[in-house]
Write a structure and sequence with these properties.
Elements: H1 2-45, H2 47-50, H3 55-64, H4 66-76, H5 78-121, H6 132-145, H7 150-162, H8 177-190, H9 198-217
Helix pairs in contact: 1-4, 1-5, 1-9, 3-4, 4-9, 5-6, 5-7, 5-8, 5-9, 6-7, 7-8
Length: about 220
């Protein structure tokens, strides 16, 4: 028990540190690019920008330099992308660590418990053309009701969302629906891609490209 507490404390600290690092880097980069971009646009627009304030400045920018202002707006809202992509990266990182370190001892037992409870609650369900999408929804609800660690539940929910049930033939009498779910979920988790920062770095580079275009095009 102490081992698990230590491990999940470590997992949580990794997630928090990664979140802070990604969003701090994104915010600093956005502030630098936005500040330089504002200076370039103000310099290019000239006296009209200095003679107005507040929303009027934005209007002057859009009227005088529509392309440059659009690019500057994209730079301004980039931190939202950093947050979204950062959360996806952190989730994939945690999934990768849990599958590598604790798959057999934590994820599989939770999966078994969820499937047993699901089967007990649906003794006659999903045998003849039932809505398989509904099965996934009920499985996700069952995961939420469990009292296990939140990271384990997130990983298992991720696995359930990834599985495809369209190819399951429920007309066969010998089919075991829960066994298929278990196999597909484990396969989906093991096939999940390793965490990558490429999308985050792409946003960072794009901000500087936008800034360069503001300086070059001057439109």
């Amino acid at each position: 028990m102490k081992e698990q507490i230590k491990y999940f404390t470590k997992i949580t600290s990794i997630a928090v540190f990664s979140f802070i690092k990604i969003n701090l880097l994104g915010s600093v980069n956005s502030i630098i690019c936005f500040t330089i971009g504002c200076f370039l646009l103000t310099e290019n627009v000239g006296h009209a920008a200095h003679a107005n304030s507040g929303p009027l400045i934005i209007l002057v920018f859009f009227m005088s330099k529509p392309l440059g202002t659009t690019l500057l707006t994209l730079i301004f809202f980039a931190p939202i992308l950093y947050m979204i992509l950062g959360n996806k990266y952190i989730m994939s990182k945690i999934i990768h660590l849990l599958i590598k370190d604790k798959s057999e001892s934590t994820i599989t037992p939770l999966l078994d418990r969820v499937l047993i409870k699901f089967k007990n609650n649906q003794p006659d369900g999903f045998k003849k053309g039932a809505d398989l999408g509904l099965a996934k929804i009920k499985l996700l609800d069952q995961v939420k009701s469990e009292t296990d660690n939140k990271w384990l539940k997130k990983v298992l929910s991720f696995g359930f969302k990834k599985i495809q049930l369209d190819d399951v033939d429920l007309s066969q009498d010998n089919i075991a629906f829960t066994d298929i779910i278990k196999t597909k979920t484990i396969t989906a988790l093991h096939n999940s891609t390793e965490p990558s920062r490429k999308a985050i770095l792409a946003v960072l580079i794009l901000q500087w490209i936008f800034l360069l275009l503001i300086w070059i095009i001057k439109l």
